Amino acid sequence: MSQLTTVDATFLNAETSTTHAHIAGLGVLDPATCPGGRLTVAAVARLVRERAHLAALPLRQRLAQVPLGLDVPYWEDDPHFDPERHIFEIGLPAPGNAAQLSEAVAMLHERPLDRDRPLWEIALIQGLEGGRCAVYVKAHHAAIDGVLAAETLAALLDLSPEPRELPADDAAPQRAPGALSMFSTGLLKAATHPLRSALSVARTAPHLDEIPGVMQLPGAGLVSHAVQGVLRRDGGPRVPRVSAPPTSFNQPIGRRRAVAYGELDLADVKEIRTALGGSVNDVVMALCATALRQWLDKRGELPDGPLVAGVPVSLRKDGRENDPGNQVSIMTAPLATHLADPAERYAAVRRDMELGKRRFAAGSGAWLRELTGLMPAPLMGPLARMAMSVVPSLDLRPMNLIISNVPGPQFPLYLSGARVLGYYPISVITDISGGLNITVFSYDGKVDIGIVACRDLVPNPSELIDHLTDALDELRALARE
Q1: Whole-structure pTM value
Q2: Annotated catalytic residue: which of 140, 141, 207, 467?
Q3: pLDDT digit string (tens) for 389-416?
Q4: Active site includes 141?
Q5: Are 260 and 459 in contact (CB under 8 A)?
Q6: Where does residue 402 rank: exposed (0-12), middle (13-18), buried (19+ CB within 10 A)?
Q7: Are 46 and 84 within 8 A, CB to CB?
């Protein structure tokens, strides 16, 4: 039995009719090596049933609510758990192309998860051209972060079409505490909340200028550095106070989603990194800067200054790899979409990312956990939803979009005997973070790209996939000069 962290609970509480806090992945597979040459719901359900105890995602656990909402929920094993209740199959009409698959995934991504059951589902999508199939795997962000998602994939996938030997599942079913126990613990936490909140404020004050949006408020930087001076603490390099400019995807989002996916050659990305310096992530950010510049310029919307990108950062380090719940924060960095020269743009992206990482490393990176801990549990939901509506209405833009880069294995993997040809992350959009999210995952010599957007704001995100391809050609030419 474990309890959600305040960060986990925030992902639950932030959900509205237009914002769903689940993350997903689209895997395209070749089923030729499956038994019978076809991947089936029964085979995937059997895989989940046999390996649920190995997965970091609580595949068998559901939420157990605390009476009167006095505390954040607990996880407990679902006594009615049946993998086949979470797995279903759909078919694409001929010809089963990429555009049709993107449309199907967009519709699946619009649907919220049922909170009365374990917070995940899998859609097996048949009928792709070339004899391929796909799986769309969705899980709630309250249950999993990026690192845990990778660990869950590792538990479900194999290195060959033949399944590997598995350790036995000898764990006893986990049940949440009784209602009276949860109620009394909630009362105790409510009584001590003012003290814990005061400590959180003290820990957060030196890092105000790390918090997206807050760092743009007048005086935030001065307060942060004044507290650092009192504490004789070096807060690290000052991050430039860059406001996120208005764009067409920084408006209130609607219910509908648009999805696109594609891939780039990882060898090309590494060639650019070697020639121009920096990291693979710097190259990815520069590619996104160029693609977004082209997209905005095409519509006559290119701002005079840089966009601001939110970049998720894992806090799982220093022996904390096995900590439960979300261990994630976010940093912001300017994205030099305003620079026309490719060399200058790449240099600016590399410089700004380095500065942002140095500033983030100088702090605890735990401001998200501290902020979410400031709110009493009974008020977390209303306050989170109020923030989701108030921040956009005040025309505050902490960032323009989220860009995430997740490293993956550089060898082929198999799901129930089917070879995984590509894996494309499909993440979250919100009014605060922007109606566009670009996530990339390196796998088996490729950089797999997943884009999700509000359909009302960015109806055809596949344009950005084309622009990313153009951006790679541009940087590759620059690297070879």
Answers
A1: 0.90
A2: 141
A3: 656 666 678 899 999 999 999 999 999 9
A4: yes
A5: no
A6: buried
A7: no
